[in-house]
Amino acid sequence: MSQKEESKTSQNGQTMIESAGLTKYYGPFVATEDVTFTVTKGQVAAFLGPNGAGKSTTMKMLTGYLAPTRGHAVIGGHNVATERIEASRLIGYLPENGPLYLEMTPSGLLKYLGEARGMTGSALQGRMEYVAEKCALQKVWGKPIGKLSRGYRQRVGMAQALLHDPEVLILDEPTSGLDPNQVHEVRELINSLSKTKTILLSTHILREAQAVCSRVILINDGRIVLDGTVSDLEGSDHDMEGRFRKLTTASAK
Predict the structure, then answer these.
(1) Which of these, 152, 168, 192, 210, could form a disulfide with 148 (CB 3.0-4.6 Å)?
(2) Under a CB-based contact definition with an 8 Å cutoff, are residues 104 and 95 in contact?
(3) Residue 242 sits in a domain of what CATH number?
């Protein structure tokens, strides 16, 4: 176990994210089946899997955007279905290709979202200034979001997820479509946030897991096929890509 893994696993063992048998059917199609795992306080966990494996569906159920057919999600001890408001206060969610109001500026959008969460006055202003600096948005603070590059739009999405200072971050493909420099910036941001947040990071990019995560949860065909450390995914021959292919090409059903 690496030093990074040891430092993460030695932190408070409080469960912050719990997926308990999350199952989602669309008619006869099975999107996820009995997806069960926990993420403890202070961990950065990669939710890995090929495209269409069930990552986004699971994250939508964890955040309450999608109701499961069976099972339940718990965030910081709050059932997402029955304690929605309490759970949502703890979550910062960055959906893949999350919708943004393109005619608004980053400043205007964050002010609007903050007020919708009940934030006002100097507290809201302080958090807006914090996320503007943390996500490097100062140069485009007053520019319409519709005029921004993909990288800056992703930063705006990250800023809205961080605005209310949540304890849990659920990030769905945060580096999708970014150039190498932008990917590096997002990874640096996640590394800095990992000191105070519990993070579940969805990706199909294996190097992402190696760069920022201490834990790997691998899903294939809607089912968990591996739950362990990054070194568990690498295997004894340290061939992460080979082990990923082996686990995701074999049918999990």
Answers:
(1) 152
(2) no
(3) 3.40.50.300
